[in-house]
Amino acid sequence: MSETMRGFAMKLFAVAGACAVAASIGCGSVGGATPPATVRGGSGLVTSYGRIGPLKIDTSSRAQVITFAGRPAAELRRPKSGFTGSYDALGYSCSKRKVDGDVSLPTKAAPNCRTFFFINRETGKLATFITTVSAYHEEHGVRPEMATATAERRLHRRVVEGCATDIYIYRRATRLTIEFAHGRTQASGHVVGGRVSALLLRSRRDDLGLFDC
């Protein structure tokens, strides 16, 4: 056997042994990277054009959300009420008691969770998404828990106190809201200090009326 073939055989043997020891992690081809483990509740890029990883606002179904994010830790079904549409809220990163970082929903029966996917019960499609988890980020790299000043530099926008302490990015069919908290409002209205508290993505065609200012 040539030196080249002997070396290749030894690599195969080493990879096979590693796979046997760490089968729960998974193993790729020789020289390939091991695919990352799926994070329950999802992670990755949230775009102002309506994408959450492989999901898409107005298009993805409940089953597709669960395929991406896993089984929800909590679920809340609400009928249409006033200006709020009927929805099925799939919650992730939930706790028994409300803690800082939990998303506040307009109902006392809501579970305490840091990520929610809202399915419109009339259309069966994903209509709204919100997270306070730093595993998600938008196109400029802005993510929950990032310092306000850092987010402003990346977005080339200033956070100004208004109806809420938010920065909005509008697209034809969707709107991305970057929420901020724990800052101080100056006389000019500019908010200094604090951090990004949440990323909120919603449909403009099929708005459920949640999180309105």
Low-confidence stretches: 1-37
CATH T-level fold name of the largest domain: protein yfey like fold
Strand order of the largest sheet: 4-5-6-7-13-10-9
Query: Outline, from the CA principal axes?
Result: globular
User: From N to C, what is the helix and strand string?
Assistant: HEEEHEEEEEHEEEEE
User: What does the main sheet amount to?
Assistant: 7 strands, antiparallel
Number of strands: 13
- How confident is the prediction overall: mean pLDDT? 83
Question: How many separate helices?
Answer: 3
Structural class: alpha+beta
Helical coverage, percent range: 10-25%
> What's the number of structural domains?
2
Rg over C-alpha atoms, rounded to the nearest angstrom: 21 Å
Share in β-strands = 25-35%
Spatial gap, N to C terminus: 73 Å
CATH superfamily of the largest domain: protein yfey like domain
* CATH-scheme architecture of the largest domain: Sandwich
Description:
The chain has three helices and 13 strands; from the N terminus they run αβββαβββββαβββββ. It has about 210 residues and is α+β, with helices and mostly antiparallel strands. It has two domains: about 1-35; about 45-205, protein yfey like fold. A seven-stranded antiparallel β-sheet has the order 4-5-6-7-13-10-9. A two-stranded parallel sheet has the order 1-8. It is globular, with a radius of gyration of 21 Å.
